[in-house]
Structure formats: structure tokens, C-alpha cells
Amino acid sequence: MIKSLNFRAAVVSALLLLVFVLAWHVGTQPKQAAAPAAGVSAEYAALMGGGQQQSGLPTPLQVGQTFWERVSDPFYDKGPNDKGIGIQLAYSLARVLTGFVLASLVAVPLGFLIDMSPVMHKALNPYVQLLKPISPLAWMPLALYTIKDSSISAVFVIFICSLWPMLINTAHGVASVKREWLNVAKTLEVNPLRTAMQVILPAAAPTILTGMRISMGIAWLVIVAAEMLVGGTGVGYFVWNEWNNLSITNVIFAIVMIGLVGMVLDLMFGAMQRLVTYRE
Amino acid sequence: MQENFLKIERLRKVYPANRGGKALTVFDNINFGVDKGEFVCILGHSGCGKSTILNVLAGLDEASSGVVLMDGREVKGPSLDRGVVFQSHALMPWRSVMKNIEFAVKSRFPDMKKDQVRAHCQKYIDLVGLTGSEHKKPAELSGGMKQRVGIARAFAIEPKMLLLDEPFGALDALTRGVIQDELTKICAETNQTVFMITHDVDEAILLSDKIILMTNGPEAKIAEIVVNTLPHPRSRHDIHKDPQYYRIRNHLVDFLVTRSKQFASEAPADYDPLHPPMVKPGLNEKLPVEASTEPEPPRGMKPSLHVVNE
Q: Mind listing the pLDDT tens digit for each residue in B179-206?
């Protein structure tokens, strides 16, 4: 009972992983070879996989080997269909970040505007409500047709999916800035720009960052699907390509990497959120 | 009569009727003046428009008609000439004590150099007794300390006039006393002109030179202006020993308990809202010098009489 909560949780986590890997290992062991049925020639049996019933899923050991190989050489480039995971992830991250930054450049000022002008608030609201529930991938054909570049289309899809949570959260954050802080700024004759930057922005920052965190989460979900569609590069393309190669080992590897990167992104935004959060 | 430093003339606030309701006149024909260096309290029940008057003076609200003149110029919108201490202290929680005051000082003196700003802020932090807490965030401070920061921030811009919106309302009696003492001290040192809202009769007597008594709203008026004739300096500990104290106090309590309600129907015949009567109950030797509504409290520990605020 002296051990801390964290330590105990870590032990349980490790145990869960162990149980899972064990179960996986047992589940993917080749089944006992059934005796070749009479009448089937040895040659035919060999063609059918040596008469062994093999599970399609790779064993943990195989996946582990793949992990090691791929992680130890992440940046090789052997042509369009064989690039290291580091390169693929970098492509995906670059698209996500470009789309995300563009979206925040639009969403944050627009969120301010929506709150400062009641007319704009009412005028834009129906569009926001209409556009928000559209799956970002539904924009893909339109983007491909108009932009005529698959990579930029993927960035556009990220842009459009990151936009709404940031816009809505910024508008909400700005709207909930306490009246008294604005009154302080007013009585001090602070100009609107300085009020926006030094009062409203820090006051709304936690809410704005919540929106950014949600946006980033969605963007990372969407990029995989978008890259499966547009192909060429990126971790989504990698998954689809390996599926076409029937390399389930690589698919599993990619799934885990997508999870890890997503987790790191979320942790980064969590840390930023803690940085701007204030206690009242 | 000489011109007042601050002059409020025929001030009136009407909230327009909404959906078939009647328009609400909060107060009407409010006239009074504040001289330079004077400490004026306004006393009245909730709903009489005290806060609205203060907000109009601060430039945060607009009167429906009437004018406010300060130093001969009309008050339109907020100005750095008037420092405001808000009831809820209104500190920005993401800024430290120093940064909160710096924000105000930089607004007032945009050309000041960085270390000058620091020194200026430090001076006012020291003045309100917060030395050592400069880098704390408001969340780490007690209610009294937060309000001190609010006061330091208002003083730091060196305004021509200070507006205090019930600054001690949310504080416990002990803290309130300490900060009242400090406010008295600072105001005496700086000869600051102050306009303050309060619900607390004892606070008004301790701090003010003049106490404006408002009748109950709607259509609140200034019933009279009580001149606080208690000599300076005053101290919380022996102020009640002065014979004037209970004369003034009884007069105020009597007003709040009964006359503020009846004023609308029983206004004196010679009542003129343009020149509300100035009274000096403290000098009226016919009045008793004991508490009339309350038994004499134990020495130095007077419970503050609060107007019911709901």
C-alpha cells in the first residue's frame, strides 16, 4: 500500500499488455496439422500450404520483428511504393499541420468577429450549422475537381474539418469573457486591438485551445482516410498499400504508429492548454 | 456658490418598456456635486440606481437624460481621469498582482519605461500592504487581498477621481475594517476625490464627508445629503465615543428603515430635487447621543448594520 497510484496503474497496464500479447500469440499459433486426407496427393497438399492450417494473422513475434526493422530505418526511400514510416508520417503530419494552421488563421479571427458583431453572429450561424455536420471527405471530389491536385485536396479536407470546432470554440470563448474585465479595459481607455490581444485572447485562450485540440484530433482521424483516397504518400496511403500487398504485419505496425502520433499530438495540445489555463 | 469639481445635473435613467410592460424609471432628477478632495458616499436600498449612477460616472453606462460634468467638462464614456474599483475586484486571473497593475499603468502612461512602470506599480503595491505578493496570481490571494489589488490598480493610474462600487461588500468584517483604515489613510495622503457606493452605515460614517441618501426605487430621488461633521482623523476604535456618532448613525438608520420608503408619498412640502436639503444631524444637540435602534455594542466591536440587500 506504500506504492503510489501511478505505480499500481503501471503494473496493471503492463499485465494487461502481457495478457493481450499472450492471447494473440496463442491465437495465431499454427493449428495441429491434420493428416492429409486420403486421395489428396502430396503435391496438392504442399500447394495448399503444406497441409497446415495457417492463421492469416501474423504472430506477435513477426509484428515485433517488423516494428524493429521499420523503426530502426524510418527514413529510407526506395521509390514510390517503398518509403520508411518516418517519411510517410512526415507527409501526413505536414498535411495536417498545413490544413490546421490555415484553419486556425481563419477560425480564430472569424470567431472574434462573430462575437463582436451580433449581425455577423446571426448571419453566419446558419452556414456554420449547415457545414459543420458534413463529413470532410464528402468535400474530396469537389476539392479534386477544383484544385486538381491530390495533395492540396487532402490539405483542404483537413482545413475544412479543423475549421468548425475552432470557430465554434473561439466564438464561445470570446462570448464568455467576463464583462468586468472588459469594463476594466474600458475604464482604462484601452484601444480595441489591445483589448482583444491582452484581455479577450488570454481570457478565451483555454476555450480556444480546447477547440484546437478537438480539431487536431479530428484532423488526424481524417488524414488517414483522405490519404487512402488520394494515394501517393502519407501514412494513410501506407496502410492501404500494405493492405493491397496483403502485408497484415505492416498494417498492424501502421495502426500502432497512427495511434502513437495521435497520442503525442493530443498530449502536446494538453500541455499547451495547461499553459494558458488560469484559476479564478 | 462655487462650482463643484464633479457636478451631476438632472440625471435620469429609464429602462424602455419591453413587450407590453411599462417603462421603468430607475431614478429621476438626480442633482448633486462633489468637491475636490471630498469623500462622498451614496447610501440606499437595492434598486435605487446607485450602481447605475456610478456606472454613468465611470462612463460604462449612459443616462437617459441629464449631464455629468467633471472639471467643467461633460463626462462622455470612460476615461482614465476616473479610476474605478469594482465590487467583484475584476482582476484578470491570468495576470499576477504586478501584471494586473502594470496593465493599468501602461494604459495611463504609455511612454513610461519598463523599470519606471515597475517602480510605479511597486509603490502602489506597497501602499496597500501587498509587498511580497507581487508575483502571486489572484487565485492565490484572499478576498481582502484581491480587493487591495483592485484599489492599488485604481490609485496607480493617479485619477482625478476615484469611483468605488461597494468595494468591501464581499469582505468579512475584520478584513473590511483593516482595508477601510488603509483607504482612509491613502485618501488623506493623496487628497483623493472619492465617490463610493455602500450598504454599510458605519462604513459611510467612518469614511465620508457627505452621505447622499437615496429613496427607494423606482423613480428614486436624493432625499437629502447628510454632512458628516465628525472631525478627522477618525478611527474605527473610538469613533462611536464621539457624541455626534450616534446622532448621525441614528439619522441614517432611521432613514433607511422607514423614511426611504415613505419619502415618495410624504416628501416635505419644500422639497426641491434640484437642491436636496443638506442636513447636519451630528450638530443637532437635541438628538440623543445613544443608539436608538440597537443596544450599545461592546467596546470597539460594533456589528455593522447592513441594509438588507435582497
A: 888 888 888 888 889 999 988 898 899 9
Residue given cell 482583444 in the structure block:
A196
Name the residue type at position A139: W
pLDDT at B288 over 90: no
> Residue B155 and residue B85: Cα distance in Å, rounded?
9
Answer yes or no: do B90 and A183 touch at CB < 8 A: yes
Q: What is the mean pLDDT of chain B?
A: 85
What distance in Å separates the CA atoms of residue A142 and residue A186, rounded to the nearest whole number?
47
Top-confidence range, A78-82, B49-53, B105-109: B105-109
Please check whether residue A278 touches B, CB under 8 A: yes
Please state, as a whole number, how many other Cβ atoms lie within 10 Å of the Cβ of residue B231.
Answer: 9
Q: How far apart are CA A25 and CA A37, in angstroms?
A: 28
* Of B305, B308, B280, residue with least CA distance to B294: B305
* ipTM of the complex as predicted: 0.83
- By the 8 A CB rule, do B14 and B69 touch? no
Angstrom distance (rounded) from CA A121 to CA A112: 10
Contact B149, B141 (CB under 8 A): yes
The per-residue pLDDT for range B138-179, each reduced to its tens digit, is: 999 988 899 999 999 998 998 999 999 988 887 788 888 888
B53 — phi, psi (to 5°)? -60, -45
Strand ranges in A53-195 using DSSP code E only, listed in sequence order: none
Residue type, A259: G
Nearest chain B CA: its distance from A199 CA (Å): 8
What is the pLDDT, as a whole number, of residue B91?
94
Give the Å distances, CA to CA, from B118 to A184, A250, B80, B111, B204: 20, 60, 19, 13, 34
> What is the chain B residue with the closest CA to A279?
B139
Question: Locate cell 464614456: which residue?
Answer: B77
Give the Cα separation of B41 and B165 in Å (integer): 10
For B135, phi and psi rounded to 5 degrees? -105, 15
The answer to whether the beta carbons of residues B200 and B44 sit under 8 Å apart is no
Between chains, do B104 and A188 touch, taking CB under 8 Å as contact?
yes
Helix, strand or coil, per DSSP, at residue A75: coil
In the sheet with B24-34, reading across from the earlier edge strand, the strands are: B24-34, B6-15, B65-70, B73-74
A191 three-class SS: coil
- Give residue B87's Cα distance to chain centre: 10
What angle (nearest 5°) sits at the alpha carbon of residue A171, between those of residues A167 and A173? 115
Nearest to A278 among B59, B94, B107 (CB): B94
Pairs of residues, one from chain A and one from chain B, whose beta carbons lie less than 8 Å apart? 58
